[in-house]
Amino acid sequence: MEQDLRSIPASKLDKFIENHLPDTSFCADLRETIDALCALLKDRSFQGPVRRMRASKGVKGVLIKEIKKQLCEIQHERRFGVKFEVHSLRSPNSRALSFKLSAPDLLKEVKFDVLPAYDLLDHLNILKKPNQQFYANLISGHIPPGKEGELSSCFMGLRKYFLNCRPTKLKRLIRLVTHWYQLCKEKLGDPLPPQYALELLTVYAWEHGSRVTKFNTAQGFRTVLELVTKYKQLRIYWTVYYDFRHQEVSEYLRQQLKKDRPVILDPADPTRNIAGLNPKDWRRLAGEAAAWLQYPCFKYRDGSPVCSWEVPVRTCHHHLRPPTPLLFIYLENLPTQMWSLHSCGGHWLSLFHSHLSTVHRFHGLTGCLSG
């Protein structure tokens, strides 16, 4: 597959994506299974009266063990049309539980993580911009050193809508980038930057380099890889959910954006730098990106090179002026790649698509998106 992708002419990348979309029947079975699984977990887990508990790693570990118990019971009941496999916990106080759904006849599998999360967004309409006092309270309530992003799993709903509002072709470009990322991961191994950082980088490249719903896929792909090679200059954020208008939030954002690059702030959680804390991870990926830029997938049939979009690598100046809020009006009826199981004893069990793989080794968080 790697050889196939890098040798495909730039003009054929759209066809490559189309040919490697997940099978429609598999996606339908997958959604049906997830809906049934969510319903079963809601009925079985954390029955009885709701009790208030102080959030801690120990409490999360207890919740994960309970979830695993219920998933194992469901697994043995064999009531689903796809194969169900629960993975062992990585540690006694693991913060996530992994399981896998697969369809042997289709030679495809999907891996999931189950995360217990405080229902932080219960009172918020995730289709609207939250009141900035919400973020001010978040910042004032939990920012001890080294604890930034501790509540990231609570923002899964906002994160989902941030990606799902995008035009169809951009989502296809995201799928291509995440597929490339998985090829790099197979070759280089860990550690690498988080895959979500590459997805956000793709959104950023499109917003600042194109913003049209019909664009040249090879140009977008090349732009993202060039941004990866410029990781030391990346300072990226969005003002979709939070902004500079609230003084406390503004001061915190300024401090976040002054940190060593790369900085890619989570669009839903300003306390979390998606780019991670280890530049060496980016250096390894940047080396691979630089090599790929020489491959035929970035050349047309006549041998001429594909040009990238003109995209700045910094979204703010040194004095950090408040930016103009971004407005997104794409209201397509899009299938979702994330599922949230609400109200389990005062918690959310966030089920999110970790990565999709097929016999063609097609991976990606957004791999389940069609269109």
UniProtKB/TrEMBL annotation:
Keyword RNA-binding: yes
Residue ranges annotated for the 2'-5'-oligoadenylate synthetase domain, each copy included: 129-313
Pfam families linked to this entry: OAS1_C
GO biological process: defense response to virus; innate immune response; negative regulation of viral genome replication
InterPro entries per record: 2-5-oligoAdlate_synth_1_dom2/C, 2-5OAS_C_CS, NT_sf
Keywords assigned by UniProt, alphabetized: Antiviral defense, Immunity, Innate immunity, RNA-binding
Domain of life of the native organism: Eukaryota
An example Gene Ontology molecular-function term: 2'-5'-oligoadenylate synthetase activity
GO cellular component, one term: nucleoplasm
Similarity section: Belongs to the 2-5A synthase family.
Protein's recorded name: Inactive 2'-5'-oligoadenylate synthase 1B isoform X3
UniProt source species: Mus caroli (Ryukyu mouse)
